[in-house]
């Protein structure tokens, strides 16, 4: 008669084989920050303060990375709790920038700056203690340092992000005379002439002219790039792009080329080793 009791060794081996069969991709997906932070949200407490929103989103990713890197550490390790608590404090300070980013003597600005510097020290201590690898330590410290540079450049910028002007608002309306057949035919011929002239312009020239017409977008990009170079000194395209996550590197490269042509910025080096500084 068969026994109902199972062999403990067989049960142990079955459990072990089941745990080994879990694919590695599942574990990676559980620790992928982007899964939790990339989805768009409808809640936006920052309004038109785009700079403060970018600072907060970066702080949010850094806080998530701190919790991820310290998840394997013993609960009794003091640096683990200090790093986690400080990353949460960084979120609170960054949230306060929504109304105090450019205010004189802003406490939120000072607290955010101090919190960034403290976190850099704590992450370095984690690396020295052997809890995080040298690569992860360097990556997180660089991210915090870049966040500090973004905070400083955004605070120095004098852009009024909550004020938008359109060409229609700046162009006075003129009373038009009554249209007759001659007026209509002359305007049609003018439009055809304009189309012919535009068709003869290269795509690159049209792109530069189009971005120049939109003063709010092109002018804002150029001014922010100038602010970053003013606070950072000599920087490469990647350094500038890290402070402007909403723009692609190619767009920033085009803006830099236009600034160099206007003798606002000086280009040093060639190709991918190029660096830029203010004249």
Overview of the molecule:
The chain is mostly helical and 279 residues long. Strands 1-3-2 form a three-stranded antiparallel sheet. The chain is built from 14 helices and three strands. Helix content is 66%, strand content 4%. The termini are far apart. Among the domains are: 46-156, de novo design (two linked rop proteins); 202-279, Arc Repressor Mutant, subunit A, CATH 1.10.10.10. The longest helix is centred in the middle third of the chain and has 23 residues, at 134-156.
Query: In the CATH scheme, what's the topology name of the domain at 46-156?
Result: de novo design (two linked rop proteins)
In round numbers, the mean pLDDT is 73
What is the approximate shape? globular
User: How helical, in percent, are the residues?
Assistant: 55-70%
Q: Termini separation (Å)?
A: 94 Å
If helices are DSSP runs of H or I spanning 4 or more residues, what is the number of helices? Answer: 14
In which order are the strands of the major sheet placed? 1-3-2
CATH architecture of the domain at 46-156: Up-down Bundle
- Biggest sheet overview: 3 strands, antiparallel
Radius of gyration: 28 Å
Structure characteristics:
279 residues, mainly alpha, de novo design (two linked rop proteins), three-stranded antiparallel β-sheet, 3 strands, 4% strand
Question: What is the secondary structure topology, with strand pairs?
Answer:
Elements: H1 8-20, H2 24-30, H3 33-37, H4 50-69, H5 78-95, H6 97-100, H7 107-128, H8 134-156, H9 167-170, H10 181-199, H11 203-213, H12 215-232, E1 235-236, H13 237-242, H14 249-261, E2 265-268, E3 275-278
Helix pairs in contact: 4-5, 4-8, 5-7, 7-8, 8-12, 12-14
